[in-house]
């Protein structure tokens, strides 16, 4: 391999921190600082710093495993692939294509996510594909699409956060999930802005807030409604904005006015004076934003909960204005890109809807298949897992570990165990892989090249920095080989750039348009924000613009596939592409250090464009919605929402609420990070966080084992006693399997729109565990 450091990105969370990987004499790599990437400017958390340990882990899989006599034993690649293809073909012949399930992950690169969706629908012919991102941010995606016509986690760069006057951070513990991003909040406060954190726990992030609101888990929908009620009552709405840029206000207003502050206090436990203070802090400055994460999203009413926070942003004229608005802090490494390219049950590449005839025609043409041969939408992630062993007889799983990460995990484990056939691709023997009939050892981040899209919608190039160990192959090779064995000889290339080129074509004209992005361009720039359409002859090439910052263009409306976009504007029309709006100019004049950084990036982009010719001319879209939203009429949509209880409320038998989350030293199901000694030392196992009053009732001391029992099962872990949590609530991190598995307890009650399970609130009882 190259002996010079390779600039690339972390394999873990959606921040996708930049890092350099430098070769070491023993054939490995070490992480060096990479200060030029604006998201983290060289800073990394412990997970990113230690990520190379997983490459050379002693438990790394380097040979396929097949089940023989009840045990997994090493086998050759041909035998393993033959077994998978044989089983999938046999089950399809006996039970039909929908008896085959495919389960992907939000950590897969864009290329893999794209290829997996195509593999399911073309090579297998099944509709039964979904992925673990359904458990992550699907409620925010649904609410964003409903309100703005388009979901891109953050519709603005992270660097806009410190320029805002106030940030409400809802259900996000950035200090533990994305530590380098904390600097944006620190800079916000240094600039005179204020921070409000909404979280049932006084987390490390909440400790930095000017105001911490600690609602009961599952009640932040009511909290947002209470704030909106006060905004109206105190005359803080932006009537001109509401009239010009939104629809549906009257119904949303009426819904909010039914939520009196005193009623909201009774539901949430947040005192009315704190509600008033939050409204003052949010409405006083000219700019303000709301950022949500898993707290409001992982609820059986997650879409409406996020919708309530969006309504607050719309009523106060925040969305679609510089340094203001609503954004979702996506969690997984490619949580954003993972939901755009077709591994979601209801979507095709380019963030197109699977049930849209024009979208089907477009993608089918790129794939060289008959549109009518494409299956329709399938089951959502939990529903798919719940159907294993019944309708779905075989499962191919890539980049996920549902035995630890799915809700009602013991049931999911039992369903997986009842399959006729399970194939898993992974880098280590995860708890789900342990149940497989065939396990394929695959390459991981630094051993392969591919793109991800971070939480800002910034498409990034992850570069190969080391040679993979002998015996492993890439997920793309796996799909190529399996497709060929299933009789599909073409259409599944193994070269990631070739896959990306096809993805570009498939996404062209869709909401998430990547057609103007190339590997060559990504290699020269610090990412490109989608939408980034390839110019067509009729398109004006954007710019020159104000010169103060990157051009900010309005995303095209959803494609109708007939040359006319919704809203009646012809493709290539001047209103759509590269139009520097008044809002953009406003966004471009706020000169400061960050802005200068953006100018440098834009200059690089423009230089790349000149080199690349018109094909690469679009600069990308760091900021969305500044002149119009992506709805047919260009206006954001208020949606009236009302408080409703969590699917499971405390009662005499289960009197306490459980909420789940993360710790800084572990990532997701821990399949990778639990294999890193330094991370294990920092976070060796699960725990139950509980208030001293609850601990006293149990007679539990710090470190004593306590049992948490829900209607779905029982988990035991040491007590961690703290006043940072409400007395009516306990918290467990979900990174571990076994006795302390938090997801044994969680409730798979699904949001009716997003199909997101309710990880954040379920009823439990807590018991002291007698000494053994
Ligand atoms: Fe950055 Fe996230 Fe990686 Fe930590 S895990 S280094 S915050 S990308």
TrEMBL record:
<dbReference type="InterPro" id="IPR050123">
    <property type="entry name" value="Prok_molybdopt-oxidoreductase"/>
</dbReference>
<dbReference type="GO" id="GO:0051539">
    <property type="term" value="F:4 iron, 4 sulfur cluster binding"/>
</dbReference>
<protein>
    <submittedName>
        <fullName>Molybdopterin oxidoreductase</fullName>
    </submittedName>
</protein>
<dbReference type="Pfam" id="PF00384">
    <property type="entry name" value="Molybdopterin"/>
</dbReference>
<feature type="compositionally biased region" description="Pro residues">
    <location>
        <begin position="533"/>
        <end position="543"/>
    </location>
</feature>
<dbReference type="GO" id="GO:0046872">
    <property type="term" value="F:metal ion binding"/>
</dbReference>
<dbReference type="GO" id="GO:0043546">
    <property type="term" value="F:molybdopterin cofactor binding"/>
</dbReference>
<dbReference type="GO" id="GO:0022904">
    <property type="term" value="P:respiratory electron transport chain"/>
</dbReference>
<dbReference type="Pfam" id="PF04879">
    <property type="entry name" value="Molybdop_Fe4S4"/>
</dbReference>
<dbReference type="Pfam" id="PF01568">
    <property type="entry name" value="Molydop_binding"/>
</dbReference>
<feature type="region of interest" description="Disordered">
    <location>
        <begin position="533"/>
        <end position="620"/>
    </location>
</feature>
<dbReference type="InterPro" id="IPR006657">
    <property type="entry name" value="MoPterin_dinucl-bd_dom"/>
</dbReference>
<keyword id="KW-0411">Iron-sulfur</keyword>
<keyword id="KW-0004">4Fe-4S</keyword>
<keyword id="KW-0479">Metal-binding</keyword>
<dbReference type="InterPro" id="IPR009010">
    <property type="entry name" value="Asp_de-COase-like_dom_sf"/>
</dbReference>
<dbReference type="InterPro" id="IPR006963">
    <property type="entry name" value="Mopterin_OxRdtase_4Fe-4S_dom"/>
</dbReference>
<feature type="domain" description="4Fe-4S Mo/W bis-MGD-type">
    <location>
        <begin position="3"/>
        <end position="59"/>
    </location>
</feature>
<dbReference type="GO" id="GO:0003954">
    <property type="term" value="F:NADH dehydrogenase activity"/>
</dbReference>
<keyword id="KW-0408">Iron</keyword>
<dbReference type="InterPro" id="IPR006656">
    <property type="entry name" value="Mopterin_OxRdtase"/>
</dbReference>
<dbReference type="GO" id="GO:0016020">
    <property type="term" value="C:membrane"/>
</dbReference>
């Amino acid at each position: 391999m190259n002996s010079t450091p390779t600039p690339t990105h972390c394999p873990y969370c959606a921040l996708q921190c930049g890092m350099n990987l430098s070769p070491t004499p023993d054939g490995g790599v070490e992480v060096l600082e990479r200060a030029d990437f604006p998201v983290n400017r060289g800073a990394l958390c412990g997970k990113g710093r230690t990520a190379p340990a997983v490459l050379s882990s002693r438990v790394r899989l380097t040979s396929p495993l097949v089940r023989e006599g009840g045990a997994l034993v090493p086998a050759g690649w041909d035998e393993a692939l033959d077994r998978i293809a044989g089983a999938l073909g046999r089950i399809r012949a006996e039970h039909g294509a929908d008896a085959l399930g495919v389960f992907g992950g939000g950590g897969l690169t864009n290329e893999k996510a794209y290829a997996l969706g195509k593999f399911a629908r073309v090579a297998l012919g099944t509709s039964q594909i979904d992925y673990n991102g359904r458990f992550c941010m699907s409620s925010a995606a649904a609410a964003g699409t409903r309100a703005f016509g388009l979901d891109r986690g953050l519709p603005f760069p992270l660097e806009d956060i410190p320029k805002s006057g106030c940030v409400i951070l809802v259900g996000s513990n950035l200090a533990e999930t994305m530590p380098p991003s904390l600097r944006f909040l620190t800079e916000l406060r240094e600039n005179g802005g204020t921070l409000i954190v909404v979280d049932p726990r006084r987390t490390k992030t909440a400790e930095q807030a000017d105001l911490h609101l600690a609602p009961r888990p599952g009640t932040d929908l009511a909290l947002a409604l209470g704030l909106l009620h006060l905004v109206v009552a105190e005359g803080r709405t932006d009537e001109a904005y509401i009239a010009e840029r939104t629809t549906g206000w009257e119904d949303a207003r009426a819904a909010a006015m039914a939520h009196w502050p005193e009623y909201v206090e009774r539901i949430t436990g947040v005192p009315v004076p704190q509600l008033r203070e939050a409204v003052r802090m949010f409405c006083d400055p000219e700019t303000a934003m709301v950022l949500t994460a898993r707290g409001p999203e992982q609820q059986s009413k997650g879409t409406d909960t996020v919708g309530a926070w969006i309504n607050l942003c719309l009523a106060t004229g925040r969305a679609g204005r510089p340094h203001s608005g609503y954004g979702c802090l996506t969690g997984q490494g490619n949580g954003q890109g993972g939901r755009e390219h077709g591994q979601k049950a209801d979507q095709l590449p380019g963030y197109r809807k699977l049930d849209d005839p024009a979208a089907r025609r477009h993608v089918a043409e790129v794939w060289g298949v008959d549109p009518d041969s494409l299956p329709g939408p399938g089951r959502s992630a939990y529903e798919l897992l719940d159907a294993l062993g019944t309708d779905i007889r075989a499962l191919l799983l890539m980049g996920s570990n549902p035995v630890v990460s799915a809700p009602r995990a013991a049931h999911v484990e039992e369903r997986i165990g009842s399959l006729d056939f399970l194939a898993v691709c992974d880098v280590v023997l995860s708890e789900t892989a342990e149940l497989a009939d065939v396990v394929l050892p695959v390459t991981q981040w630094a051993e392969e090249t591919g793109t991800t899209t971070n939480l800002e919608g910034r498409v990034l190039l992850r570069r190969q920095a080391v040679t993979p160990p002998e015996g492993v192959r890439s997920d793309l090779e796996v799909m190529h080989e399996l497709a060929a064995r299933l009789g599909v000889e073409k259409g599944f290339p193994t070269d990631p750039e070739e896959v990306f080129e096809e993805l570009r074509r498939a996404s062209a004209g869709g909401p998430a348009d990547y057609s103007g992005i190339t590997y060559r361009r990504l290699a020269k720039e610090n990412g490109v924000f989608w939408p980034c359409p390839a110019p067509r002859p009729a398109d004006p090439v954007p710019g020159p613009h104000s010169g103060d910052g990157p051009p900010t263009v309005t995303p095209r409306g959803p494609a109708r596939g007939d040359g006319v976009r919704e809203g009646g504007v012809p493709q290539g029309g001047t209103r759509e592409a590269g139009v520097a709006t008044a809002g953009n100019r406003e966004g471009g004049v706020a000169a400061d250090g960050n802005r200068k950084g953006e100018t440098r990036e834009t200059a690089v982009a423009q230089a790349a464009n000149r080199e690349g010719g018109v094909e690469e001319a679009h600069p990308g879209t760091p900021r969305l919605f500044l002149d119009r939203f992506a709805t047919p009429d260009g206006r954001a949509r208020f949606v009236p929402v009302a408080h409703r209880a969590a699917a499971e409320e405390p009662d005499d038998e289960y009197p306490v609420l459980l909420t789940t989350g993360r710790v800084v030293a572990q990532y997701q199901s821990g399949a990778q990070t639990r294999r890193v000694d330094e991370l294990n030392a920092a976070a060796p196992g699960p725990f139950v966080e509980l208030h001293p009053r609850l601990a006293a009732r149990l007679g539990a001391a710090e470190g004593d084992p306590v049992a948490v029992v829900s209607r779905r099962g029982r988990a035991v872990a040491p007590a961690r006693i703290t006043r940072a949590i409400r007395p009516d609530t306990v918290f467990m991190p979900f990174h571990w399997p076994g006795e302390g598995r938090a997801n044994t307890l969680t409730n798979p009650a699904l949001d009716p729109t997003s199909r997101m399970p309710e990880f954040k609130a379920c009823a439990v009882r807590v018991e002291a565990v007698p000494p053994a």
